[in-house]
Design brief:
This protein is mainly β. The protein is built from two helices and nine strands, in the order E-E-E-H-E-E-E-E-E-E-H.
């Protein structure tokens, strides 16, 4: 069976950036996604289409097809008072409410009465390299499509 939109693709993966391993399924369960549901970076999702069980391939995904380019407008100084009594430190992550809705931000600097936050994804602006081995392909069930995620054999495994 050839992978197409709305199919379940299950695969082993290793992802690197600049030669450094970021994540791998080695020693863990393979990743199971519904193709076309935005569960992966767009470039990798596109690379999976047309593949089948047993295919092993490498995919070089440019930043714009991964987590996007860095946006300098997402780096800004905010008053330290916004964090209340929290002792803020570089590297801490918070959820912020913005004009575009909820967004994750990382503290990249702390100055006297200001905190510098970065709303970019940590991998924004970085090209990614994936090594993939497709281990299973099947049609997604109606329930999986309705829920937007793959269910474990025997059912969903959680309550909706």
């Amino acid at each position: 069976m050839i992978i197409a939109k709305d199919d379940v693709a299950i695969f082993e993966y290793t992802v690197t950036a600049n030669g450094e391993q970021l994540d791998t399924s080695e020693g863990k369960e393979p990743l199971a996604i519904i193709v076309g549901q935005g569960q992966l970076v767009p470039g990798l999702e596109q690379a999976l289409i047309g593949k089948q069980v047993g295919d092993k391939f490498d995919a070089e995904i440019a930043a714009e097809d991964a987590y996007g380019e860095r946006n300098d407008n997402l780096v800004q100084a905010v008053p330290k008072a916004m964090f209340g009594d929290v002792e803020v430190e570089v590297g801490m992550q918070f959820r912020a409410t913005t004009d575009e809705g909820e967004q994750s931000v990382v503290i990249i600097g702390v100055e006297d009465d200001e905190v510098i936050v970065d709303g970019n994804h940590p991998l924004a602006g970085i090209d990614l390299a994936f090594s993939i081995e497709v281990t299973e392909v099947r049609k997604a069930t109606e329930e999986e499509l309705a829920h937007g995620h793959v269910h474990a054999p025997g059912g969903c495994g959680h309550h909706h």
